[in-house]
Amino acid sequence: MRVPSIGWRRFLLFLPLLFILAHIISVSQLHQDSIKQDGQKRQAKKFDHLVLGPAAGEGFPNRLQCKGTKALSKIHHLASSTAGRNLPAFPDQIGHRESVAFVTVFTTYNSTDKLTNAQSDDLVTVGTISYTKVERSLAILNVFINFIQVTMPESNVIILTDPASKFSLSRNGVTIFPIEGDYSRDKLMLQRIRSYIAFLETRLHELRDSQGDVTHYIFTDSDVAVVDNLSQIFHAYPDSQVALTFRNNKEQPLNSGFIAVRGTTDGILRGKKLLEAVLEAYGSKFMKASRMLGDQLALAWVVKSQPNFDVKRFTKQQAFTEQIGDASVLFLPCAIYNWTPPEGAGQFHGMPLDVKVVHFKGSRKRLMLESWNFLNSSSDVSDMLCLVLKSGRTKYDF
């Protein structure tokens, strides 16, 4: 039998020590990771009150300048004589009325139980009002409507919802529109596209009785604040049937929280067909992201798959039009039409003076309610936007 060499015997003697050393290193690494995660949790703490920070964009031209919550420069639309009103009809459509309607999808889950059996630890207080989870969603929806009725008082709001959803909302200029479908949390983004398509189908049938009147549609999330008149989209770009918002993001250049469709028969048909292409791509390619982002990934896939489409145009904050399938699509920069602090285009350069839509994504829901309360007390949109700008990077308890 072969006797192990001295070197091998030394190795065998040290082998247990190597295992012990590896175990010590592993435990140490685990401890460091735990400390790091705890630190991240502390950093991600959500606040139950507004926290003002520095206003991004200080000193940059064409950006909102603030001193505290006082605007040193006013946003452009306040000086416009058309602010708060829909623009007049096209010259060749004298006698025909044009309007804009906002369309959003909203539903509730187990609303009856939660409204009647609210737990104290489920309540969130904003100002002097406390909300349950369901009441928070309804409060956001009401503030969404409030901003529209202040900025564009002649516009209507249409809420697409699950027929089984139980919530009460009685307001002038607001229509509840039930559409059958799967509104479960995991399928809500997929259902949203389906509901948009079903809604446009009903509009096509109604156009026969419209007597020449035209209603343009803007499909948005309900956590947006419209702070300027958006009628000009349909007047400044009369050859576009659909409008989308873009940002300089390689994987998700398009945000589905804002989709405009021209209210003519041709516009609705082409907009519906574009959404059907998005739905098909969603179902065949992006179902793994069905709970979140699947619609945006599908929308980007449909657009970028067009021959000769130049994705470099997404890196510039300038509106442009492109033929996508059968539709002439207007691409609008998120920095103006879908501005979100601190995500998306312009996040490190402040708020453009011509911002028209503020999107309170994710943890910014409290900020949306606080902003509306602030506007009620100040009646100054520019000052309110300073509040948003200085508070937008903080995570709140919504």
So, the CATH homologous superfamily of the largest domain? Spore Coat Polysaccharide Biosynthesis Protein SpsA, Chain A
Number of domains: 2
Q: Walk across the major sheet and give the strand order.
A: 7-6-3-8-11-10-13-12
Main β-sheet description: 8 strands, mixed
What would CATH call the architecture of the largest domain? Alpha-Beta Complex
Radius of gyration: 26 Å
CATH domain class of the largest domain? Alpha Beta
Number of strands: 14
What is the third-level CATH name, the topology of the largest domain? Spore Coat Polysaccharide Biosynthesis Protein SpsA, Chain A
Approximately how much helix is present in the residues? 25-40%
* Shape summary: globular
Number of helices: 10
Query: In sequence order, what are the helices and strands, one letter per element?
Result: HEEEHEEHEEHEEHEEHHEEHEHH
- Average pLDDT score: 84
Top keywords for this entry?
398 residues; alpha/beta; Spore Coat Polysaccharide Biosynthesis Protein SpsA, Chain A; 2 domains; eight-stranded mixed sheet; two-stranded antiparallel sheet; globular
What can you see in these coordinates?
The chain has 398 residues and is an alpha/beta fold. It has helices spanning 6-43, 111-116, 133-151, 188-206, 232-236, 265-285, 294-304, 334-337, 365-378, 381-391, and strands at 66-67, 70-71, 98-105, 124-126, 129-131, 156-161, 174-178, 214-220, 224-226, 242-246, 254-261, 320-324, 327-333, 357-359. The chain has an 8-stranded mixed sheet, sandwiched between helices. Strands 1-2 form a two-stranded antiparallel ribbon. Strands 4-5 form a two-stranded antiparallel sheet. It is globular, with a radius of gyration of 26 Å.
